[in-house]
YIP1 family protein
Amino acid sequence: MPSTPLFDPRAFFTERNPSLRGAAAILYFAGIAPVSTGAIATGGFGPADVTGWLLLLAVLVGAAGGAVVIWTVYAVGIYLATAVAGGTGSFTRTAANVGWSLLPLLLGNVVTSLARWGVYLSGRLSGEGSVRFPSWLDGLSLVVAVGCYLWIGYLLVYAIEDARDVSVQHATVIAAIVALVSVLVSVGISL
């Protein structure tokens, strides 16, 4: 079985040269999934009018913007933290590996977005003009997010080790900090 970043990250990052283009695609699609649920709250996807097209454009641009911000914060933060630990690899390789390590974010966003769309299409949402999702769905989204950030932390250990040529111990500490901060931010946003 070929190595994948999800289940055999050490082999994946060691045997392959993850591309920036692939990392960008992962983050772009990870951004589209949650942004698309904004159409539910705004009442989009009704008749094909200017509002629908503007909403589609906002989803596409918003996803790109979100991807750039997330990727930049993670890549720069990890690059600087590993510099303190004596890391020697390039920023380009770091950015590519970090992007590929965020693949669980794409999976988690797809799962929670499908759940939100499922609830919406079932007709079980309440609220006129302002849509409110059931609290269990918010809880599910939080559990999925926490799980994804812990999974990302695991992938980052080997992404950092490969990209910056630091020990697994140093990479683990940095990845754990990144995962912990991500979980805390996710929990804070949910409250």
